[in-house]
Amino acid sequence: MSNISDDIKEVLLDEKTIRQKVREIGKKVSRDYDGKDLMLVGILKGSVPFMADLLREITIPCTMDFMAVSSYGSSTESSGVVRILKDLDYEIENKYVLIVEDIIDSGTTLSYLIDYLKGRKAKSIEIASLLNKAVRRKVNVKAKYIGFEVPDYFLVGYGLDYAEKYRNFPYIGILKEEVYK
Ligand code: IMP
Ligand code: MG
Predict the structure, then answer these.
(1) Which residues contact 8 (CB under 8 A, 6 or more apart)?
(2) pLDDT (tens digit, 9 = 90+) per residue, 25-53?
């Protein structure tokens, strides 16, 4: 049987480490948004595992919605041009929006999204990103919740893909360079 984990150089964050961190973030979100009309907005498709796990660690009432965006460019570098493929299904007026994302890299996607949603009269728009690759930042974005600071390697698993593969790993690993070079 073929095994996609053969393409992984090293596991960076294992299942247990991720689970504990997501639990921590869930607790903080539940505390910070208590009494507020919280709406989680997941960015498809990378955020799906994080969203599904975070959602179940949140103990206050909340709703969820999804957006899909694409940024043109080669598969390991984003180009800086963002396109909305799927907008929100619901209005965000008077809601406390928390954007749920897998990773902040250059910051282009999230800074574009925040600008895009700005006119819709949300009470607040904040970001929860599982991973942050701070060294790669080109555009300034501030996330309220960050799971892990990660080094500048191309990572896959737990939602993160290369050419749409590897999203199904329960852990986050460093992709072998020979896979994409
Ligand atoms: P940004 O717009 O440059 O911040 O890019 C954010 C998007 O690029 C993320 O939502 C991911 O889809 C993708 N991305 C950035 N770094 C990685 C990585 O190491 N592995 C997989 N996808 C990544
Ligand atoms: Mg993504």
Answers:
(1) 156, 157, 169, 173, 174, 175, 176
(2) 999 999 999 999 999 999 999 999 999 99
Domains defined along the chain, listed by start? 15-150 (3.40.50.2020)
Mutate to test the pocket of ligand 1, among 77, 103, 131 (most ligand atoms within 8 A of CB): 103
Per the residue annotation, which of 37, 87, 89, 105 is the catalytic one? 105
The ligand with the least distance to the CA atom of 155 is 1
Rounded to 5°, the CA angle 157-116-35 comes to 80
Task: Establish whether 105 is a catalytic residue.
Answer: yes
Q: Is 155 in the pocket of ligand 1 (CB under 6 A)?
A: yes
The finding on whether 50 has its CB within 6 A of some atom of ligand 1 is: no
Token look-up 């960015």 returns: 43
What is the value of pTM for the model shown?
0.95
pLDDT tens-digit readout, 84-140? 999 999 999 999 999 999 999 999 999 999 999 999 999 999 999 999 999 999 999
